[in-house]
Design goal:
Strand order of the largest sheet: 3-2-1-4-5-6-7
Shape: globular
Number of domains: 3
Helix content: 40-55%
Strand content: 5-15%
Distance between the termini: 67 Å
């Protein structure tokens, strides 16, 4: 049987390579990697197959095909064939990709959106597996999966990034869950990094080096450009306060030159050196090459990779603000932010790091399941009772992940909310001006250090 394995990012390709090395993917006569790049402006971004180190990943597959090139000028995410076109597309793809007429197996990501949905509809007889997409897999299914796809769903394969934590994706269908251990992922990252030179890797400071990862949250509409710029500078300041003397800043590829300029100015005031990494190298590969003492970001999957794959100290900055800013409540970024904040800010321990039973109010698994239910109560209706139980016993540290209006709308237990610090309350109410006031103490401290 031939396998069509779809991926839209280099990180997904690395995860898939780890799954192949682990023997977690179902056996197949031929494995065909289907590249479906997710860039909104593909003409301005490097194709996945052109990124450094990809050739080492490609060696694990029998063939590579490019769905994006076939669909151009439309993007893979816009691929939504009409019902009457499905047979035509199946004939075309079987011919163009030399699939023959035999049975197929699909291994897709983001089964809630196209092109994964489109491929499942086109190959209507193919069995379906879903592979993980970083921290997103721990969140609930965003859109209900059609019955025709759900009936062919065999299971989910995911990297155990957060030790012992079970994904909520497709939990309503109770699929088979196959976990890939973290050392497999690390081995693939090492393999990819072996053939890559990262600018600044030789500039590691004996006094401590931090890797700061930008996420371009303004592109998601969560922060303004000014707010995100201030957030990045806060990360730099906090790294300096931690005793770091050299920072490697990896801005998001979509970030403008102003962000880099402001980071250099802040580093100069703080009296620390900074290297800006603008090449399209995966954050995890940079970690492998630079071996930093500290990784700082907001809620990037790379933070969890640093902590649990590499054992590097991590710092999450801005998660409290994002928990408040994310709208609507069911925003798919909520679970990644919740996980990072719970572990790195509030000290929740993953199930795999704390064997045995945990008090419900201290259980990361129970917290994630409760937040997932509040995000998608219809899809995860069976989780209502456990969510009520969690909320009834929730402590102060757990209540920050739930909004009063959302709980009232779902008729869930009312809770006594802890009073927010005045600085954060003003940040939420007053927008950009409040962000400046929130960061002013840190900025003033930075200026005093640089004086």
């Amino acid at each position: 049987m031939k396998q069509l394995i779809a991926a839209s990012t280099l990180y997904q390709c690395i995860s898939l390579a780890a799954m192949i090395d682990d023997g977690s993917l179902p056996p197949a006569d031929e494995r065909i990697l289907v590249l479906a790049g997710s860039a909104h402006q593909p003409e301005l971004n490097e194709r996945i197959q052109e990124t450094p180190g990809f050739e080492r990943i490609a060696a694990r597959f029998d063939r590579i095909v490019d769905l994006g090139a076939l669909l151009w000028p439309r993007r893979p995410g816009q691929f939504k064939p009409r019902e009457e076109e499905l047979a035509l597309w199946e004939t075309l793809l079987r011919s163009h990709w030399q699939l023959g007429s035999g049975p197929l197996q699909l291994i897709v990501e983001s089964i809630q959106v196209d092109p994964a949905i489109a491929l499942c509809r086109i190959f209507g007889d193919a069995t379906v597996w879903v592979h993980s997409d970083g921290l997103m897999s721990y969140g609930p299914t965003r859109n209900a999966v059609s019955l025709s796809v759900a009936q062919r769903l065999d299971g989910i394969i995911y990297v155990d990034l957060v030790p012992g934590l079970h994904p909520q994706l497709l939990a309503e269908h109770q699929p088979t869950m196959v976990a890939v251990e973290r050392p497999r992922l690390k081995a693939v990252i090492e393999d990819v990094a072996a053939g890559i030179s990262v600018p600044g890797e030789s500039g590691v400071s004996p006094d401590g080096t931090a890797l700061i990862l930008g996420q371009y949250l303004s592109d998601l509409g969560i922060l303004t450009v000014e707010e995100e710029d201030l957030l990045h500078r806060t990360m730099l300041t906090q790294a300096a306060n931690h005793g770091i003397r050299h920072c490697v800043f990896k801005p998001h590829p979509s970030a403008g030159p102003a962000a880099t300029q402001h980071m250099r100015q802040t580093a100069k005031r703080l009296g620390i050196s900074i290297s800006v990494l603008e090449s399209p190298v995966l954050a995890e590969v940079v970690m492998e090459k630079v071996q930093p003492d500290l990784v700082v970001s907001c809620f990037s999957t790379a933070l969890i990779t640093a902590k649990y794959v590499y054992g590097i100290e991590t710092m999450a900055i801005g998660t409290e603000m994002l928990l408040e800013r994310l709208t609507p409540y069911q925003n798919s970024n909520r679970i990644p932010v919740t996980i990072v904040d719970a572990i790195m800010v509030k000290g929740f321990e993953p199930p795999g790091d704390r064997p045995g039973s945990q008090p419900v109010e201290q259980s990361l698994q129970a917290l994630v399941e409760a937040v997932a239910y509040c995000m998608q109560p219809r899809i995860l209706a069976s989780a209502r009772a456990s969510t009520i139980s969690f909320l009834e016993g929730a402590g102060r540290d757990s209540l920050r992940y739930f909004k009063r209006l959302r709980l009232a709308k779902l008729e869930l237990p009312a809770v006594e909310y802890p009073k927010e610090p005045a600085s954060f309350r003003s940040l939420r109410v007053s927008g950009r001006g409040a962000v400046k006031r929130w960061l002013r103490p840190l900025r003033n401290q930075s200026e005093r250090r640089g004086a």
